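Handout, section B. The chain below has 607 residues.
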Amino acid sequence: MQLLARRGSGHADAAPHATHLGDFQLRPRVLLITALALVVGALSAVVAYALLQLIGLITNLVFYQRVATEMIAPSAAPHPWWLVLFAPVAGGLVIGLMARYGSEKIRGHGMPEAIEAILTGGSRVAPRVAVLKPVSSAISIGTGGPFGAEGPIIMTGGAVGSITAQLLALTADERKTLLVAGAASGMAATFNAPLAAILLAVELLLFEWRPRSFIPVAAAVVVGTICRGFLLGTGPVFDMPALSAPGPLADSLALVPGITGGLLAIAVTALVYKSEDAFARLPIHWMWWPALGGLIIGIGGLIEPRALGVGYDVIEQLLAGEATMSLIVGILVVKTTIWALSLGSGTSGGVLAPVFMIGAALGAAEGGLLPEVSPGFWAMCGLAAVVGGVMRSPLTGIVFTMELTHAWNGLVPMIVASVSAYAVSALLLKRSVLTEKIARRRVHLTREYTTDPLETFFVHEVMAEHPLVLHGDEPVRAVLPQVREANLYPVADRAGQLIGVTTHRALVSCHGGIVSDATTAARGVVHPDDTLREVVNVLATHDITRTVVVDRTDPTRVVGVVTLAHLLHARRQDLHEEHHRERVLTVRPEPPSAPKEPALAWITADH
């Protein structure tokens, strides 16, 4: 993310035109994309609802042999062992066939695929993915897969936004905005968590925080949340007993599930990709991998039936403080194992619901050793911690937990748990479960939010002042000894007014003529009060590596030349501020004969 950070208020006031907020220059476009995002938000909410209904339908058909769409756990009633074992295998086989003969893009848990579409695909999602992804995910979860619906909803909602954009004449950035609007509104409609959905969009999908994208995404999320109220109700997804104020001790002890949650996040991420590597070494086509993953799921279901399916009922039981120790251990061991191993098989399913369950189980297990606060409090801390550690999105982990439970009294310990888990994960693990998959496809991804150093310097601070200005009527033979290769030279008339630019090569090609014969129009001139970021935009737009700096009030008067090399000054300063250590304040004893003065002296290092 690039944040505007101008140095020197005088410059900003003197050059309001130089403030690089292109969103305001594109206000009609922002309003248009926002209007489209409202439609996308409503459509994505309906798609999210339809996906949940489809999951319920397949679950009922497979495990209860009835036609119904209510969300029900596969373990709500006992089943024959062969059904528990082979239903996930059959589901995996169908998914493998759909991926091979439909679209390989349906493989995986949805978020990396959405990120990759944004980074490398121009935010284009094929229409068939919009159909095949939710169907394959519903089959995977409905046949017992231990996955969540949120990843497929992100991909499907994103597909709705992308397809809408592809039907219109929009830019790639505008397609990205609508893709993310669809993904975030689908999330909001699923979990009734609008703020968490917006944060998820910013932390994971947008790669920027600018009005042109933030406003449409927020608008879509609001619409998706309103639609959810009509379709699924407005209450919290997980009801918790009233949470009393935790107090300073509980706030501090939230470090325990935070740190252990970060370590668990590292272990889970490693297990997912070890599994993926193991499947890649199998001497069979990847089409069969989801069926093998289904076999792992079936074996796990025989050991702990409640590990199957989305598991919202188990999460609610954990957060209510009603889970038995056998269930807690079963979720931590069986759910974690079958989820990570089967996800590595390339089947279709999401990560958030399993992460919710695993995190809540970790917190519930530690709650027996920690002071009692309120039922489900420590499970809530574990949930926030593992989301922050696995997703590497601490703000999303905090807000998600709050919005899922409406237990707002627990905000401070959730901050402690989620941020400490994020710290452990970030310090010990190079990439998250989401970005590792993208990195393996040789796509570099950074999620660090920082100031753009090109925004902190103006042209007049780095340009070459008083450049050699040639006169158009001078003989080329006379000026050639003064010029060097790889430089740009302004050309002016005898009145000193700029008429164009020339180079050493151009002059050599007109050796027998005058300078004006080797002169071309100056492309993309800049001004002393432009930022270096604006210079980069000009150079890129005109496909040049250097340009002339002219006075803004008199565009015919040359004041300097700026080149790509000058732009490195901003990067050098950024590196200097990051790595150079200096003592700005020091404590020194008073001179014996001096009057009594404060011991602290302000000393500015002179470098």
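Note. Residues 1-24, 598-607 have pLDDT under 50 and may be disordered. Compare this with the example in section A.
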